[in-house]
Specification:
Elements: H1 13-24, H2 27-30, H3 32-39, H4 46-71, H5 75-82, H6 87-117, E1 137-138, E2 149-150, H7 151-160, H8 175-192, H9 196-206, H10 209-221, H11 227-235, H12 245-259, H13 265-270, H14 279-312, H15 325-335, H16 341-383, H17 386-401, H18 409-453, H19 459-482, E3 488-489, E4 492-493, H20 496-510, H21 512-523, H22 528-535, E5 541-542, E6 547-548, E7 565-570, E8 573-579
Parallel strand pairs: 1-2
Antiparallel strand pairs: 3-4, 5-6, 7-8
Length: 580
């Protein structure tokens, strides 16, 4: 395939690999994975997690990287070529990535708050002698009392968040968090404003530094009293939990969220690869290192859980920590026990900053890449420079993030994360797999891989693409709907109107799939049957005339395709040069 005109590529292939690792390895590894593992009964969660990695995570990541590298376009344009009928899947991936980046950066703002708060001789969450502490605050064993809360938990709730009693009470703007959110977006902008040329240099540090801190924390935590109990809870399965469908759904959701399946981030970044890059090598490297990081973080967090259970004199299973509080309650409590605690705290929260930025600029890059692929000429007439377009995207996402830095922010955050990270992503994954594996076809995908690397995908990947992944995702999607639980935060249950807003948030990305299908059927020429047949024809190519059918009535469907020249390679016949 010809290189897309003027499209930049990674300076070195290792930069893509590190960027892919950085995108996949994020805050979810040290926050969502341990939390889901804890809520799903500890060790029992590891069984479906590993199985989902093997039959869903690795094959679907291979599929996405292959599509991105072969098409040399972001998710909107790439998936439109794969299956015009489901071009809305690409739009949905952009929508969900943009939605997530508006609140994901809030966690980076929180990490900055903790990092700056650590620059003092005694960490502010080490004691209960502060103005924000309540009489129930404790830093020692509580003889099983359930009415007490750790000093680190009170710092998170009452000092940093100053949270209200529920989503009904908006409260005031937290100006400190507002300024830190602005700083987080400024940092994100300067990481990506030059595209892959700037991103490729940043990832050398941001992708590797977190492992130094995680290993140091693990060495410290395993020496704490009670750590063995926490690790035992983590690695010894409660086999009864495997009978719960929720555990399997959580495992699949974690694989999709952690690796980034359905978000378009890695697909967009792989579009900047050299055409003959070894995709399988990158796939295995990214997926395995991502899961290794999650499991490593699990040992770190559960050893800290064991220490907290020792301090509070309660079982590990009774520790009340929910959602993002895991990172900002359990870890700080463990950090307070380390020698030279403020130094370790600064390094830990700087690590969170690195983890967050890697994933954050990958999600922003999806939006920028898709806009440039579809409307580059129009946008450049207005913005003149790509850097200004990146600035506009970052500014818009920053404005959408402001509700999260009000006193009601934690409830807004939890609501958006619940409906975006679990509900929306399963719908997107299902339609992406159907459009690529069943409509575009496993044979075509294997042909593309052979054209790029010289080797076809083996029988394992073909079976996963053709049967296992589509069927398994469909089953998980059905059970996700049947056993869906409304959003909650700790003991607070959201009112019906807030749950309704949550569904609107979920629909903001899902709705693009039917809208895209309707638009495709509207603009194509011919009868309904002819339109339907054309809509599932890959590459917008009429095989009989060897001419692109969009030139005969639907070119306006994809404005940028008209200036792209590419080859359609099939194994049985010579590659056809097509100018669209």
């Amino acid at each position: 395939m010809d290189q897309a005109p003027g499209r930049p590529t990674w300076s070195k292939q290792i930069e893509f690999t590190l960027a892919g690792i950085g995108s996949a390895v994020g805050l979810g590894n040290v926050w969502r994975f341990p939390y889901l593992c804890y809520r799903s009964g500890g060790g029992a969660f590891l069984v479906p997690y590993v199985l989902m990695l093997v039959v869903l995570g690795i094959p679907l990541l291979f599929m996405e990287l292959s599509i991105g590298q072969y098409m040399r376009r972001g998710p909107v344009q790439a998936l439109a070529k794969v299956c015009p009928l489901f071009k809305g899947v690409g739009m949905a991936t952009v929508a969900i990535s943009f939605t997530m980046c508006t609140y994901y950066n809030v966690i980076i703002a929180w990490a900055l708050y903790y990092m700056f708060s650590s620059f003092q001789s005694q960490l502010p969450w080490q004691s209960c002698n502060n103005t924000w502490n309540t009489p129930s605050c404790t830093t020692y064993a509580t003889n099983g009392s359930t009415n007490s809360s750790m000093a680190s938990q009170q710092f998170f709730n009452f000092k940093m968040l100053e949270r209200t009693g529920g989503v009904e009470e908006t409260g005031d703007l937290r100006w400190e968090l507002f300024l830190l959110l602005l700083l987080a977006w400024i940092l994100n902008y300067f990481c990506i404003f030059k595209g892959v040329k700037s991103t490729g240099k940043v990832v050398y540090f941001t992708a590797l530094f977190p492992y130094v801190i995680l290993l140091a924390l693990l060495i410290n935590n395993v020496q704490l009293p009670g750590a063995v109990d926490g690790i035992s809870f983590y690695i010894i399965p409660d086999w009864n939990k495997l009978g719960s469908v929720e555990v399997w759904v959580n495992a699949a959701a974690q694989i999709f969220n952690s690796i980034g399946i359905g978000f378009g981030s890695l697909l967009a970044m792989s579009s900047y690869n050299n055409f003959n890059n070894n995709i399988l090598k990158d796939t295995l490297t990214i997926a395995l290192i991502n899961s290794f990081t999650s499991i490593l973080a699990g040992f770190v967090i559960f050893s800290a859980f064991g220490y907290m259970s020792y301090l509070q004199d309660i079982p590990v299973s009774d520790i009340a920590v929910d959602g993002p509080g895991l990172v900002f309650v359990v870890y700080p409590q463990a950090l307070a026990t380390m020698p030279v605690a403020p130094l370790w705290a600064v390094m830990f929260f700087f690590m969170l900053l690195c983890l967050g930025l890697d994933s954050q600029f990958a999600m922003v890059e999806v939006m920028v890449t898709s806009l440039m692929d579809g409307y580059e000429q129009r946008l450049m007439k207005f913005f003149k420079h790509k850097e200004l377009l990146v600035l506009a995207v970052c500014s818009a996402a920053f404005l959408f993030g402001i509700p999260h830095v009000m006193q009601v922010g934690i409830y807004v955050f939890q609501l958006m994360d619940h409906y975006t990270a679990i509900v929306s992503i399963m719908f997107l994954a299902f339609f992406e797999v159907v459009s690529v594996c069943w409509i575009y076809g496993v044979k075509r995908l294997s042909d593309n891989i052979e054209e790029m690397t010289g080797k076809r995908a083996n029988i394992y990947f073909r079976m996963c693409w053709l049967v296992i992944a589509p069927v398994l995702i469909a089953v998980i999607l059905v059970f996700t709907i049947i056993q869906f639980k409304p959003a909650r935060y700790e003991n607070y249950v959201y009112p019906p109107w807030a749950q309704g807003i949550g569904w609107l948030i979920a629909m903001a990305s899902i709705i693009w799939i039917p809208l895209g299908a309707l638009h495709t059927m509207w603009v194509l020429p011919g009868s309904f049957t002819q339109r339907l047949k054309l809509s599932i024809t890959p590459f917008a190519l009429n095989e009989k005339s060897k001419e692109p059918y969009y030139e005969r009535g639907g070119r306006d469907l994809y404005p940028s395709i008209a200036v792209v020249s590419f080859k359609v390679g099939l194994s049985e016949k010579p590659a056809i040069q097509v100018k669209l």
